[in-house]
Design goal:
Helices cover about 75% and strands about 0% of the residues. Helix 3 packs antiparallel against helix 4 and helix 13 runs parallel beside helix 15. The protein starts with a helix and ends with a helix. It has 17 helices and no strands. It is globular. The longest helix has 28 residues.
Length: about 350
């Protein structure tokens, strides 16, 4: 197999899987699943801190099951809406949505494209068992950090409106999300089966009045295509030039290099580049690739999708404010995850 064929072989299954998961997320959104979640979050008792924790727990769950890109696209508007209905400052919820999505992407192999790229599309239940410690540590530390950073905004009491609950239906989106999560745990190569599931769900939903074009537009195919080409190119160059930047690096150094590479070229191409020749510290590599994007808005596709969703929701995120928070949150999460992984 040539270097180019090897790079393409490593890269296409993860991109197929994330496209399928985004499509399933769109079906879930069309079923009203996220709106139903928002209406229930608004009515939760307790103050702003408890509400933020509940919202970010939802982000963690959706990220784990449907991946962080789906979470960024569909839950960012939900959290903005929840903050608005409770008359709270939007910043903790806006930035919390994306920081928690990145921090929660270590649970399942399909939770983040980087997991699939580094593992060459394989993982299943063994990945969950090996990563459960870091997967729990990173979001917990991120939540704690967000509460401290936004403590003044979260001190405002807000209001408790009594909006009518949106109906919660057992629809195709929820069934599809559960089936996709099961496939990612049970199957060694889940990309094609999950894609078939997504196509069936989207076509089925389109026969019930949901425009097919809207589902395709939500996938961000131009961005995915551009990142795919860049990832293949870097994978080819790494193999052709025998570039091995992680050779001899320990776990902490591996995570640091991966985090910096993520913000330099985006974590998807960085994953292909850094894993082309393998690495001894796979877990540390994934920690840097998954958590490093919290340092800057250039770090992951999920951040780009979050940015677009925030603008569509009427807010104007700041790249400087993102990094001001991320430069604290990302190193703390990486350190906590490294410790959890070594226990």
């Amino acid at each position: 197999m040539t270097q180019l064929q090897a790079s393409i072989s490593q890269t296409w299954p993860p991109f197929v899987l994330v496209t399928a998961l985004l499509a399933i997320g769109r079906v879930a959104g069309a079923d009203g699943l996220f709106e139903a979640a928002a209406s229930r979050l608004v009515r939760l008792p307790g103050g702003p801190v408890a509400l933020l924790a509940a919202c970010l727990a939802l982000v963690m769950l959706v990220t784990a099951l449907l991946n962080l890109d789906t979470s960024a696209v569909f839950l960012t508007p939900v959290l903005i809406r929840v903050a608005g209905r409770r008359r709270l400052a939007p910043a903790p919820f806006l930035y919390g949505a994306v920081f928690m999505a990145n921090a929660s992407s270590l649970f399942l192999v399909g939770s983040n494209l980087t997991n699939l790229l580094v593992l060459d599309g394989r993982g299943g239940g063994s990945f969950f068992a090996q990563m459960i410690g870091p997967a729990l540590a990173a979001p917990l530390v991120t939540l704690a950090g967000l509460i401290v950073i936004h403590r003044r905004a979260l001190a405002e009491p807000g209001e408790h409106p009594r909006d009518a609950l949106a109906p919660l239906r057992l629809g195709a989106g929820l069934v599809g999300a559960s089936a996709a999560a099961a496939a990612m745990i049970a199957l060694t190569d889940p990309a094609v089966p999950v894609l078939v599931l997504a196509v069936v769900l989207v076509l089925w939903r389109s026969t019930r009045g949901y425009p097919l074009g809207r589902a395709l537009a939500a996938l961000g195919l131009p961005s995915l295509a551009g990142l795919f080409v860049l990832a293949v190119a870097l994978g080819f160059l790494a193999r052709a030039g025998s570039l091995a930047p992680l050779q001899g690096a320990g776990p902490a150094a591996t995570a640091a290099v991966a985090a910096l590479a993520s913000v330099a070229v985006n974590n998807l191409p960085a994953a292909v580049l850094l894993s082309a020749h393998g690495t001894v510290h796979v877990q540390a590599l994934l920690l840097g690739l998954n958590l490093g994007p919290n340092l800057a808005v250039t770090g992951s596709l999920a951040v780009l999708l979050w940015w677009r969703a925030a603008r569509e929701g009427g807010l104007r995120p700041s790249a400087l404010e993102y990094s001001r928070q991320g430069i604290v949150l990302a190193p703390l999460a990486v350190a906590a995850a490294l410790v959890a992984g070594s226990i």
